[in-house]
Specification:
The structure holds two protein chains of two kinds. By secondary structure, chain A is an all-beta fold. Chain A has no helices and eleven strands. In chain A, strands 2, 4, 5, 9, 10 and 11 form a six-stranded mixed β-sheet that branches. Chain A has a five-stranded antiparallel β-sheet with strand order 1-3-8-7-6, with no helix packed on it. In chain A, strand 9 and strand 10 form a beta hairpin. Chain B is mostly beta strands. Helices cover 0% and strands 52% of the residues of chain B. In chain B, strand 7 and strand 8 form a beta hairpin. The N and C termini of chain B lie far apart (31 Å). The chains are: A mainly beta, B mainly beta. Chains A and B meet through strand 4, strand 5, strand 9 and strand 10 of A and strand 9 and strand 10 of B.
């Protein structure tokens, strides 16, 4: 299976609700990153959390990292229709020079 | 606009054609990447070019040939492709720092991709 696996694969919520996506990985990492992709477009970097950090915030985004469980979560608070996209986690190897992406979570936020 | 420009945006080609994908980054980065994104599959790293190294994914067929003439330009030459090569091809760039470990935390800047269809 993949180094980074997102859960759920698809998520549908109403505008204003919170969205939580999870990522699990198998080997030790240097850092973990979350990216967003609108349909048919490139990925956009959202946030990076290092292996010695446990939580990070950026606007409406909150990322947690539990290295003992090899998992991370991305929380989007007060979601908007414009948040509709696919969200990917990517893990960097110990050397920090190689990113491996998961399969992504497709988020739909209904107005 | 991410500072990474890919052309063309769409490409339809027959299995006997030869074509090239182009990527240009205006960010002053020192590393460039080709990724393949197929339906229902994770992003697959194909090639990496940086000042330190060139990395190839050994599973990439030889019908894909990268070229990186300088740190701002990256090409992917395509020849005798197969229908299963149809996918979104994404270029990315990053600023690589020297050394290893906690000091590194590179983030990738992606282009909008080339949607390739092989008939």
């Amino acid at each position: 299976s993949q180094q980074g696996e997102e859960d759920p694969q698809a998520l549908s919520i109403q505008e204003g609700e919170n969205a939580t996506m999870n990522c699990s990985y198998k080997t030790s990492i240097n850092n973990l990153q979350w990216y967003r992709q609108n349909s048919g477009r490139g990925l956009v970097h959202l946030i990076l959390i290092r292996s010695n950090e446990r939580e990070k915030h950026s606007g409406r985004l909150r990322v947690t990292l539990d290295t003992s469980k090899k998992s991370s979560s991305l929380l989007i608070t007060a979601s908007r229709a414009a948040d509709t996209a696919s969200y990917f986690c990517a893990t960097a190897n110990n050397a920090g020079n190689m990113l491996t992406f998961g399969g992504g979570t497709r988020l739909m936020v209904k107005p | 606009e991410t500072g990474v420009t890919q052309t063309p945006r769409h490409l339809v080609m027959g299995m006997t054609n030869k074509k090239s994908l182009k990527c240009e980054q205006h960010l002053g980065h020192n590393a460039m990447y080709w990724y393949k994104q197929s339906a229902k599959k994770p992003l697959e790293l194909m090639f990496v070019y940086s000042l330190e190294e060139r990395v190839e994914n050994n599973s990439v067929p030889s019908r894909f040939s990268p070229e990186c003439p300088n740190s701002s330009h990256l090409f992917l030459h395509l020849h005798t492709l197969q229908p299963e090569d149809s996918a979104l091809y994404l270029c990315a760039s990053s600023q690589r720092t020297h050394g290893y470990g906690q000091g590194r935390g590179e983030k990738l800047f992606f282009g909008s991709g080339t949607q390739l269809s092989v008939l």
